[in-house]
Amino acid sequence: MEMNEHQIRRIDHAVCDWMLELRTRILNHFGQRLTVQTKTGRKDLVTNVDKENEKFYVEKIHGFDPQAKILGEEGFGDQVNSLKGRLWIVDPIDGTMNFVKQHDHFAMMVGVYEDGEPVYGAIMDVMNNVIYHGGPQIGVFANGLAVPEPENLSLSDGLMGMSASLVVNDVSHMQAIEHAASGMRIYGSAGLDIIAVLAGENVGYISYLKPWDIAAGRALLEPLGLVVSTIDGNALDMLSSNLVLVATKQAQQDILKIVQG
Ligand code: 2AM
Ligand code: CA
Ligand code: CA
Ligand code: CA
Question: Which domains does the chain carry?
């Protein structure tokens, strides 16, 4: 059952309210001791705030949309192995390393999909108190103000957001892409990298991403004429990891040329 514009606006109000409530809780946490654990290695962290946030989202989503399935990074949602029906995809803190080390430069992300297609996304830049929110049916807003389509700049005319490990290891010609761009930026939060592309600050972003890192972003990027694909220009698999390229249409072409040699 496809949702109409009115239903998506209801989701929008609810998600923005939840994010604002969580933001207040996060700011209060800064006065307290964080519990930090490692996941796959010493650079892959999770804190009590990641877990508490995800539990909060799962509880709110269950109350709001009881039939939907939830895919959350920290595992408090459902076991999801199909894109059929309505799926909420949640990243409770994006940029956990920044959150722990800097108390800044992190995001929260919520995406809603129907049969594998994006219908809604929200990314909050928590410390700047800005939410990018919307989708293909309702348009894209930053705290309620319409976001203009970014100019279709080429790679040579813009900054590229990249992930440190890809550049260090020169995966898929990352160093050649850096040389061709105006410059490279490494922010450490997929959500903030995506916001930089939405806002027209950067022409693209490349990183190895899980579904919760890109779900919200895809719902916001595509309505603004920006493109989301794998580094080979193929469609993403929204249930697994992808080497993701987010870009203006022109920068995507420029990067595909470099990658394909
Ligand atoms: P996270 O903080 O929600 O885990 C930089 O590390 C960016 O890449 C962050 O947005 C981070 O999201 C994401 N990321 C994806 N997989 C990661 C991993 N295995 N280790 C660290 N960060 C990862
Ligand atoms: Ca993580
Ligand atoms: Ca993330
Ligand atoms: Ca996370």
Answer: 5-146 (3.30.540.10), 155-259 (3.40.190.80)
